[in-house]
Amino acid sequence: MKKLEIIDFHHQTLLREKFKELNLPISDYTFANIFLFRSISHYEFLTTDCGLFIAGCNRQGEHYIMPLNDLRGCDQKTFENLLAEDNFFFPVPEEWLSFFPENKFIISYDDSESDYLYLTEKMASFQGKQYVRHRNHLKQFFAAYTPRAQAISGENSLPALTVLQSWQNDSGLAVNKTDFLQCREALEKFSGLDLWGTLYYIESEPAGFVIGEPLNAETFVLHFAKAFTKYHGIYEFMFNDTARRLLPRYRFLNLEEDMGSKNLRRTKGSYGPEKLLKKYHVCLKK
Question: Distance between alpha carbon 226 and the CA centroid of its chain, in Å?
Answer without folding.
Answer: 14
